[in-house]
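Hello,

Following up on my earlier ticket. Below are the two sequence lines again, exactly as submitted.
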Amino acid sequence: MAEELKVIVFGIGTEEYGIEVDKVRTIERMMPITRVPRTPSFIKGVINLRGIVVPVLHLSERFGLEESPVTDHTRIIVVAVNEMEVGFIVDSANDVVDINEDDIDTPPEIVGGIQAKYLRGIAKINDDRLLIMLNLAEVLNKNELVQIEQLEV
Amino acid sequence: MDMNAYLSMFIDESNDHLQSLNENLLRLEGAPEDISIVQDIFRSAHTLKGMSATMGFEDLANLTHEMENVLDLVRNNKLKMDAFIFDTLFKGLDALESMVQDVINGGTGKADVSDIVVNLQRIVKGEHLSDSPKADSSSTQSTAASVEKVTALDQFQSSVLQQSIENGHQVYFIKVTLAETCVLKAARCYMVFDVLENTGEVVKSEPAVEDLEKEKFDRTFTVFTISKINEEELVKRLTQISEIETVEVSALDVDTLATLSVNTTVTNDAPIAKQETKQAEQATANKAAAPARAQGAPVANRTIRVDIDRLDSLMNLFSELLIDRVRLEQLASEIKRNELTETVEHMARVSSDLQNIVLKLRMVPVDTVFNRFPRMVRDLAKSLDKKIDLIITGAETELDRTVIDEIGDPLVHLLRNSVDHGVETVNERIAAGKPETGTVHLRAFHSGNFVFIEVEEDGRGINKAKVLEKAISKGIVTKEEADRLSDDEISNLIFAPGFSTADVISDISGRGVGLDVVKTKITSLGGNVTVTSVEGKGSKFSVQLPLTLSIISAMLIKLGSEKYAVPLTSIVETSIIQKSSIINVHGNQMIKFRNSVIPVVSLSQMFESPDYDESQETEHEVIVIHKGEKLAAIIIDEFIGQSDIVLKTLGKYLTNIFGVSGATILGDGQVALIIDPNALIK
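Thanks for your patience. The regenerated structure is below:
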């Protein structure tokens, strides 16, 4: 019997993504962001999360997708991975679901323009919803960050 | 029982006791006659022994026990301290330290200390100095006493009692019998002693306190005590302790005392009388010292240990509170209701007091770093065959805990340098017409927002010609530059990276062992280190450190809609310049500033500001910043003002951001980045 996972579901554009609940520190409404100069454009800056300064990324830009405008539904999901705390700006975050680890399939090469290495897999819920599970360690890979910086300079 | 829970406590306390042993032994070395110091040492050793035995570190306990035996003889005036005993005790201490270190590293605290133990035992037996009459007589005396096995007082004790009677104190002989059913005999004894010590002083007990603690007695023990309260009161207090069957208290006068002590008062009247007066003097000296200690003791017990992480989270919570306070103040001024305004004002006052306390909590006296230096300098001087006095002043000066943790190594470096290469050998000093003993001053003091720590010695000083020669040959300065350098600038060349190599040490006056490492470390703490030196007279290293790393004074500035903070420490001046005064030199923008030409940096271009561009202005606000000797003018949009800010990191995801050293949270809850001026100056 495979393990049950609790997953936070959030939306970017028309697609639905998932992050395991135990990696999520908190979900916040949009708040003022301080720009950090000379960083890749998907790094939006830093926020004050109750006294702690946390960097914030725009997830869709990180994946090279089009940036969506900020609405009332826009949320910042703060995750903690490898002792790093980072906030993701997403279009909406409104659901927690249980999925079975068996239901996660390996992703096809390209999904919605996102490179496969950022993905852990695709989970099916209720037959009609597809949930894209993120590989957070890869999304927050710092080596890649350095490469991007070098490209921009 | 799971001992792990107590292990960290054990380690902390052992370190404290080892430290105090070290300090007191050093003090004793300076004043070998002062028995009160021996008492302190004995107490620390005794506690350490008890703790390590409880924790099951047998070797630790055994070694401490042997050291305690020696100390016991010393404090009872049966043994005189000499160089051999000091060295053995110091060696014992080192062994104890390494054992505790082993325990810290997860070891079992075992070590082979048989050499030291043998030496200690020899000292106890008086073998290390077989011709010492003192040791001999004391051993015969103690055997005599043990043979007689009566309630007899030795000369010292009886003279103390006599003295107290003469001074009008009450002296009692107390016989305590415990109830048959008593389970914790040692505990009851302790309670009796506690009462007696609270009201006066216990001079002698039979059996001895050590045996009472180990419950090596039947049900009865006797005590000679000097007390401030009367007989009735004493009986009343003692019988209040449960499980005590009877208490017999009899007051003593000079006559009864004489009969009691007659047993041991042997021949040699004249020397004993002499000794007695001396001992009496010491006894009074002890008494004089005792109340001073009694006042000191409760202070020491009023501290608690707190995990530094908890202080950090307290700090974080507090800065949140601070932000809310500012927000409340803003709301109050909008709503304009008196009650609200008053409450908010009161809250503001309370929270600023709170801020002071929270910041103070993190401050630690530099003594915690300094306290290991006397020993280090002593050992170093001994091994180098030099005579050196280390004089420490300002050890009570306080610094932030995070700074304290970091400055230990650099200071060790500087001190070693001073002792090793600064101060000359005895012969050289005599030849130079200086006193044999070199002096190394270690000073700490506050000045403004900084703490200064100075290491000054009266040694040979820095040979500037050789430093210059070396610096030129290493390519640190060119010949032309060298000609323009002032004396101090030449001295400071020894901090230059690449200056120090092993062969330099013996070549020139011997400075430069890893001094660039010292400089790097101190600079990374936001401080600075400089040296001034007069050849033949000595050198002074001066370390400047920020009071705290968590709160700094900064200038807040605006760049369009964005706010930034510039550390005040790197600002030389703020001013307004005309655009027309900017000159182009080789494509670089420069301005004239105090007789020199310095580069102009546009912050908006550096930081790619989205909504500010100074090119349309005719006047620019600039901040002149410095990095060492280099200056630069930074063009900004607007000054906001000076403020104390709480330093925050940007987290692990964002590292090595150009021109930004950290962030802070402003009163309105927004994050402002702290500019790293060093990055803006090339």
